[in-house]
Amino acid sequence: MRKITIIGAGQGGLQLGIGLLSRGYDVTLVSNRTAEQISQGRVMSSQSMYDMAVGYERDLDLAFWDDACPPISGVHFRVGGSDGVTPIDWRSPMRAPGQSVDQRIKMPAWMAEFERRGGHLVIADAGVPDLERYAADADLVIVASGKGAVGALFERDAERSQFDAPLRTVSLTYVHGMKPREDFTALNISVNPGIGEYVNFPSLTHTGACDIINLECIPGGPMDCWQEVDSPEAHFKLAVKLIREFFPWEADRCTDLRLTDALGTLAGRITPTVRRPVGKLPSGAVVLGMADALVLNDPITGQGSNNASKCAALYMEAIVQHGDEAFDEAWMQATFEAYWDYAKWVTRFTNTHLLPPPPQVLKIFGACGENPALAARVANAFDDPRSLAPWYYDAAEADRFIDSFAVAA
Ligand SMILES: Cc1cc2nc3c(=O)[nH]c(=O)nc-3n(C[C@H](O)[C@H](O)[C@H](O)COP(=O)(O)OP(=O)(O)OC[C@H]3O[C@@H](n4cnc5c(N)ncnc54)[C@H](O)[C@@H]3O)c2cc1C
Question: Which ligand 1 atom is the nearest neighbour of the CA of 53?
Fold first, then answer.
């Protein structure tokens, strides 16, 4: 039986580990936190996931929360100012609903499931000497450590990394009591140009169904004031104040909010980074990175957990297809390139939204308000951002694309 060791019990590592168990591999998963620590810890993400990504979980009988988790049924996109006027305003249902299960629920449940299905769970903070040991003992070591420090083993890819500093200060607030929308549950995206974005959607946390407030604050701007926050209550109050001030069209839904729990808040910054996939250990042994450890995006488009699921599905097939052959550097490189073939479109979509929107994107958003079929194309792109190319990124292609919808209408 081939032995695979995975570092990191997040979306990528656990999904891949459980998938490999189902294909008959001997899998060890190393986590620097126990299930209890994850469950009782701080929120880590808003983890909205869409149909394709949740589908890979369903394939492995891992979508335990399909009934309990409130669906994210569509997208509502608005651009407006502090005066409350929203010149861009379109909405569309998605082809299939998405969902967001608090990782504090999902990861501990999957850790238990991993062990139940025969996996070996080791609690340790893996450093380079440990990786040497795991590499000597296993046929393949995969590093799925997310933003963990051990990921520095993978060299930054300067060509593929568009930025070298964070473009947003990111804040999460898990709340109960948000007034439901009147049409459908949605990924609500509001943009206040030059200031930041407010994204919210329903989720499932320890205390039941909730909503997550994501504020994406342009550094140095008026929403970038999280450094002064010193308590969960202060964080909560600031989130509501910023919504009232900069996204007043959403304020009415926020009159009766309360925090889900004292650890239902998070603030920080992410430098979007793409890394080279093969990590070389001092002995010359090689390890392969995956998901956030290699392709880390700002959460503005809510794609990282989706990426991790898709990366896990792709790596699993590549490992199985490779049979009994050695998992050498060439295989690692090729396996990552196959993933990058997908992930580069996510990175492009995400990075586009971190900068002021190009004119064709504004034009597309304007046309979405007039044309439900076009709006549906954009809404469904959250499930598969590849579908935005080439028209999202090129003015002439955008005109042609918009026109094709006008003819059809
Ligand atoms: C504020 C915010 C909001 C987000 N919202 C969304 C969203 O709405 N939709 C979406 O799709 N994505 C979202 N994301 C991104 C998403 O959470 C991540 O992309 C996803 O969790 C990545 O999965 P992963 O398995 O690569 O890493 P992670 O989920 O980070 O898991 C890595 C695991 O490895 C462990 N680890 C690290 N180092 C070591 C070590 N040395 N030894 C052992 N274990 C180690 C960590 O403790 C962790 O448990 C958001 C992220 C943030 C920060």
Answer: 11
The reply to whether 76 and 202 lie within a common domain is yes
215 near 242, Cβ under 8 Å? yes
pLDDT in tens, 180-216: 999 999 999 999 999 999 999 999 999 999 999 999 9
The residue ranges of the chain whose pLDDT is under 70 are 407-409
Same domain, yes or no: 125 and 56: yes
Give the per-residue pLDDT at 408: 54
CATH number for position 225: 3.30.9.40
Determine the structural domain holding residue 364 and report its residue range.
357-408
Q: Are residues 331 and 372 in the same domain?
A: no
Q: Is 126 in the pocket of ligand 1 (CB under 6 A)?
A: yes
Q: CA-CA distance, 158 to 139, in Å (whole number)?
A: 30
At 370-388, the pLDDT tens digits run: 999 999 999 999 999 999 9
Three-class SS of residue 301? helix
For ligand 1, say whether the CB of 202 is within 6 Å of any of its atoms: no
The pLDDT of residue 164: 97
Percent of the residues in the chain that have a pLDDT greater than 70, as a whole number: 99
- Reported as type and span, the H/E element at residue 77 is strand 72-79
Cα 10 to ligand 1 centroid, rounded to whole Å: 6
- Comparing CA positions, the residue from 186, 204, 168 lying closest to residue 253 is 186
- Residue to substitute in 132, 145, 147, 217 for testing ligand 1 pocket (most ligand atoms within 8 angstroms of CB): 145
State in Å: Cα 65 to ligand 1 middle: 19
Complete DSSP assignment for 23-62 = TT-EEEEEESS-HHHHHTS-------B-HHHHHHHHHTT-
Sign of the dihedral defined by the CA atoms of residues 308, 309, 310, 316, in that order: positive
Sign of CA dihedral 72, 297, 154, 105: negative
